[in-house]
Design a protein that fits this description.
It contains no helices and 11 strands. It is mainly beta. The termini are far apart. The mean pLDDT is 97.
């Protein structure tokens, strides 16, 4: 059974940090690129970041460059999204995606 399970979301003040995790199972995680997406209230789903299967290359949405860092640990079948200097406009449900699969999402709320 294929699963992608996100965790680490929550409520944080502007300027704060969160680290999201995405635990994968049921498919060859290390063979696939990993993406993070987000969906803000009333908006469409937006791509945020990607990392290649070997972790050697990453890419980011312009608005998160310099604040977010995507990483992965293939030995643990887990990907991460470190989010620093969070802004209210980062408020969204964050999803991990790999191959054909999506996680269920984790809520991130940035508010004072």
């Amino acid at each position: 059974q294929v699963q992608l399970v996100e965790s680490g979301g929550g409520l944080v003040q502007p300027g704060g940090s969160l680290r999201l995790s995405c635990a994968a199972s049921g498919f060859p995680f290390s063979s696939y690129m990993m993406n993070w997406y987000r969906q803000a209230p009333g908006k469409g789903r937006e791509w945020v970041a990607l990392i290649t299967n070997d972790g050697d290359s990453t890419n980011y949405l312009d608005s998160v460059k310099g604040r977010f860092t995507i990483s992965r640990d293939n030995a643990k079948n887990t990907a991460y999204l470190q989010m620093n200097k969070l802004k209210p406009e980062d408020t969204a449900i964050y999803y991990c995606q790999s191959s054909l699969y999506w996680g269920q999402g984790t809520q991130v709320t940035v508010s004072s």
